[in-house]
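Lecture 7, part B: from sequences to assemblies.

Below are the input chains for today's worked example.
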Amino acid sequence: MSYVAKSPWIIHYDGSSCNGCDIEVLACLTPMYDVERFGIINTGNPKHADVFMITGAVNERNKAVIKQIYDQMPEPKVVVAIGICACSGGIWEECYNVLGGIDKVIPVDCYIPGCAARPEAIIDGVVAGLGVLAGKRERMEKGLDPEGTDEAAPEAAVGAPAGTETAEAEKEAE
Amino acid sequence: MSKRTIIPFGPQHPVLPEPVHLDLVIEDEKVVEAIPSIGFIHRGLEKLVEKKEYTEMVYVIERICGICSFGHGWGCVSAIEGAMDIEVPARADYLRTIWHELSRVHSHLLWLGLLADGFGFESLFNHTWRVREAVLDIFEETTGGRVIFSVCKVGGVRKDIDNATLKGISEKLDEIRKETAELTDVFIEDTSVKNRLCGVGYLSKEDATDLCTVGPMARASGIVQDIRLTGNGVYDDLGFEPCIETAGDCWARCKVRIDEIYASIDLIQRAIEKIPDSEIAVPVKGNFHGEFALRMEQPRGEAFYYAKGFDEPTKYMERMRVRTPTNMNIPAMVKTLQGCDLADVPMNILTIDPCISCTER
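Predicted structure of the full complex, as structure tokens:
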């Protein structure tokens, strides 16, 4: 990707992470990595955001919060799961209060592994996510459902760990 | 009497990097009562002792918190070493102290940045985090990780730092001290910063004692309490002195942490001068047995670790308990919130240096 048509604004939420990935997300915004030069701004308001960056696994308590933030974001939107906990539950997978990766609750477009995910990896992942975002916008302009999969499908999830089922796939299975 | 309104604060809020929920009962512009509710990050990691062997549990405990991860790892291995009567080589103890104090420098710089962000001083936030990157570079050079190192193991440390690199770190710290001084002058002297911090969130020494506050929060209210004076590590050899302020407001809490950055840099440089040459780890054999408890000074205050084995030694521990500093500071935060202005709520929350993932584990 060499050209970004729109300044993508991000919203960050800490699922149940250990802070390691959170501070790396913030580090991306500070002078060393400085993603603001691409127009990426961290906003606190889901209604202004294009990219939902989420760290940590899903548990019983924050399930509803994640769902609510996702629902408040306007279409088209991209979800980026940061860190191995957000991808699959990671080290917490066996914990009684942890349900697993973010894709148990909302559809995820981009997976960034690592414990903690490095800023370079996060930036790489978000750039990949912007490609997905552009695809979804195109679908919307054609009058299609941006999250749908019928013809001219948006790019498939980037770097999805093998064997991960998305929330939608699970619903279909039911 | 004016009408009371309840304003929900969090779990997703621009000021909070982590989710915690507060119900603020407001009368006009004043907060009458703050009702915290937690549990958004609860994972239940203490229960993992049943599934992870005692040597693996260190890496789980390390991931309680990504900011003071080294300290948690050290607390956990110390509890295990205490229970199993393992003597750690002197060099390992020095290396642990150096990494722990570097963590404190990084944690306090991170917090100063978040505080600046909290009162809307964006450029100060960015500059503080720029300086912090230099500390992270030292971590990356010596351990391979930026925020989570996994370098502490039962019986010692996993990696050695050779003496030439240590000298280089000492020189780099001189530079970090110089750059930090330019920034901390703003926090201490700047009028607009002082307007946001001075006299806000006052906590008296009596209240601080009654509410069991720990760490910089207690030290800012004049309580001389620092586990580094009595706990593990080599602080005795390094001539450690705690940093105390007596004003008890947000500014004092900020000042204590700034002083601690310089104190930590001095400690590291003294440790680098004195570090002995020896092995960095002893072999650990056999199953876990025994029982041990200890306290440690984390960047946010006193943390408590307890490890207990089964009657018959096995690879698993029966119980691993951690009590973290933010947990103890939340009652004091609620106390300072009562009667403050709505606009000062973020300052009151941020100056306890909340680490919610520590609190809820």
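Note for the exam: The radius of gyration of chain A is 15 Å. Keep this in mind when comparing with the next example.
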